[in-house]
From TrEMBL:
This is Olfactory receptor. Keywords: Cell membrane, G-protein coupled receptor, Membrane, Olfaction, Receptor, Sensory transduction, Transducer, Transmembrane, Transmembrane helix. Its main location: membrane. InterPro entries: GPCR_Rhodpsn, GPCR_Rhodpsn_7TM, Olfact_rcpt, OR51/52/56-like. It comes from Capra hircus (Goat). Pfam families: 7tm_4. PROSITE patterns: G_PROTEIN_RECEP_F1_1, G_PROTEIN_RECEP_F1_2. Putative odorant or sperm cell receptor. It is a multi-pass membrane protein. SUPFAM superfamilies: Family A G protein-coupled receptor-like. GO terms for biological process: cellular response to lipid. One of its GO terms (cellular component) is plasma membrane.
Length: 299
């Protein structure tokens, strides 16, 4: 089957859905999600401000934390418009181009988060296992390159998805399972051959989430091995404490991500948790565990 290219008048529209069973009470869900999103935006903006203003935080770990905050802000701003329209104003129609744009940004920031968590684990590995070489290994230029790698990798992986979807014919009801556009949801709607889409989707998941999910635990196995070699119990606890915030952020992200393989209702709820809870919890976790951030956020 050849590629099908639509003109602007032929592009399909999609229907967004809220949570099944809530009926006319969907606006209460927006109050919850809107609160989470507001906390996320304020908290991550505050993290960026504190890191910028506090000279003692001008270190690789906090540069990566700032990138994670930018990523969390991107997730919040990408999902909020259609969540507001669906749950609060009951506006469920979304154009093809708007849906493709939202899908691109949601997945772009999701894949970017995985890359940022990986480089943060590398930062902790170098800081604990090679502390004397930390400043020479993680120079400003290398930190910039690592951050750019996380951004460029995510962009290159996600950019083809809207183009691969646009070549297909949509002839079904075009009803989505969420209040926003996700590729796993959209891929079930076309009538044409989606083999290429499925293969490419599997490839990007395995080469990003799959690879990162293997490398991050491996880095912490090496860190744990190095920490256990420290004779003093107090020093071991002090060293591990520098990893607690990052481990909490990883745990929140992974739990929400891999808990989504369930019945439709549970899948929809877990998808909402994945997109709204980690961006809200990350600044809370780092504010509690980082005394410089905790001290500055009191004012």
């Amino acid at each position: 089957m050849g590629a099908i290219l639509y003109n602007s008048s032929e592009l399909p529209t999609f229907t967004l859905t809220g949570l099944p069973g809530l009926g006319t009470s969907q606006h209460w869900m927006f109050l919850l999600l809107g609160t989470l999103c507001t906390v996320s935006i304020v908290g991550n903006a505050l993290i960026l401000f504190v890191v910028k203003e506090e000279q003692s935080l001008h270190q690789p770990m906090y540069y990566f934390l700032s990138l994670l905050s930018v990523n969390d802000l991107g997730v919040s701003f990408s999902t909020l418009p259609t969540v507001l329209a669906t749950f609060c104003f009951h506006l469920r129609k979304i154009s093809f181009d708007s849906c493709m744009a939202q899908m691109f940004f949601i997945h772009f920031f999701s894949f970017m988060e995985s890359g940022v968590l990986l480089v943060m684990s590398l930062d902790r590995y170098v800081a604990i296992c090679n502390p004397l070489r930390y400043t020479t290994m993680l120079t400003d230029s290398r930190v910039v390159c690592m951050g750019l790698w996380a951004i460029i990798r995510s962009f290159c992986m996600i950019f083809p998805l809207p183009l691969l979807l646009k070549r297909l014919s949509f002839c079904k009801a075009n009803i989505l399972s969420h209040a926003y556009c996700l590729h796993p949801d959209l891929i079930h709607l076309p009538c044409g051959d989606i083999t290429i889409n499925n293969i490419f989707g599997l490839f990007i998941v395995m080469s990003t989430f799959g690879l990162d999910s293997a490398l991050i635990p491996f880095s912490y196995v090496l860190i744990l091995h190095s920490v256990l070699a420290i004779a003093s119990r107090e020093e071991r606890l002090k060293t591990l404490n520098t990893c607690v915030s990052h481990l909490c952020a990883i745990g929140v992200s992974m739990t929400a991500r891999y808990g989504r393989h369930a019945p439709r209702f549970v899948h929809t709820v877990m998808s909402l948790i994945y997109l709204f809870v980690p961006p809200m919890l990350n600044p809370v976790i780092y504010s509690i565990k980082t005394k410089e951030i905790r001290w500055r956020t009191k004012f």
